[in-house]
Amino acid sequence: MKLTADYHTHTVFSHGTGSVSDNVGAAIKLGLNEIGITDHGTANLAYGIKRRSIKQYIDAIEAAGKQFADRIRVKTGIELNLIGLDGSADIPPGFKFDILIMGYHKSALTKDIKTMWAFISGKSHKQAITNAYMLAIQRYRINIVSHPGYGVPVDYRMLGRACADYGALFEINEKHADLSAEDIQAAASEGARFVISSDAHRPQDVGKTPGAIELVKSAGLSLKQLANIGRVKE
Hints:
Blueprint: E1 2-3, E2 5-6, H1 20-29, E3 34-40, H2 54-67, E4 73-81, E5 99-103, H3 113-121, H4 126-140, E6 144-145, H5 156-166, E7 169-173, H6 181-188, E8 193-197, H7 210-219, E9 229-230
Parallel strand pairs: 2-3, 3-4, 4-5, 5-6, 6-7, 7-8
Antiparallel strand pairs: 1-9
Helix pairs in contact: 4-5, 5-6, 6-7
């Protein structure tokens, strides 16, 4: 198996250590076809993109895309925070992105006390949290659900079904090893397709997903079920 694209990477615009160009350069060295720059949404109090910096952020990604156009495709993206049980997420108004990633993050400001309590309570609100993910996928046409199972519990079958129904990819994340092979199989049984991501916070980690690839193998996924994996030539 060989990674062909890494759609989940962070830069200095949130809490990464490298610039947009640094991440792109790392992806080129690995021979990737595409890279997504997907820093955190504005509701993340600890490391979200500052509202006043969103245009600057998009401009930096687009500039890198033009600079390296003959070597790699560079996608504008954002990792949204799930902030409400009604499926609310912190999508910045007035901006368009190539890639919308969405997931739960502990340091994000929730929409209301009810949502905050559900996230804190965890297992007793598993169905409500899963429903929130499903509503967000439908409302915003999310491309990738980031690190399912991290921080809050979800029903993997239901989430997998929502991904299949609305064309979202179910992420297998190198940085957050919260999924088991059985969890992945549960989502796959409902028709979900998957994407492997580095969730890199350093340029040297872009495209590096050995643990995620091993998990994919143990879950028995086929290449057709993976959006960004090709076969290594013998």
